[in-house]
Design goal:
Largest sheet: none
Shape: elongated
Number of domains: 1
Order of helices and strands: HHHH
């Protein structure tokens, strides 16, 4: 359980902590490259084990928010603070999906 929650919790606070320090256009692209495959596998294996499809809604929302944050940042359509908020909301959604998945067994 600790492993499943550690990454999303870290990612929830990372954008807020890095807002003025590590703010860079590649930040969300790196997040996508790591989070989407790892989380997708975790959700898939959890679904195959527990067969609880309710986790897909928050998981899908989390992925969509991460992708939106990356696109909006790359296009410079939102200030960094709003990008950090979107990324934090995405992390909360992914955490919710993981918690639903973990409570299924």
């Amino acid at each position: 359980m600790v492993q499943c929650l550690a990454l999303p919790l870290t990612l929830m606070f990372a954008p807020l902590a890095s807002w003025g320090v590590l703010s860079h256009d590649l930040f969300h692209l790196v997040l996508l490259a790591v989070i989407v495959p790892v989380s997708s596998l975790a959700f898939l294996f959890g679904f195959l084990r527990h067969r609880n499809g309710r986790m897909w809604l928050p998981a899908g929302l989390g992925f969509a928010l991460l992708i939106a944050a990356a696109v909006l940042e790359q296009q410079h359509l939102l200030p960094a603070g709003w990008i950090a908020v979107l990324t934090s909301l995405a992390s909360l959604s992914l955490i919710t999906g993981h918690v639903i998945n973990l409570r299924s067994h």
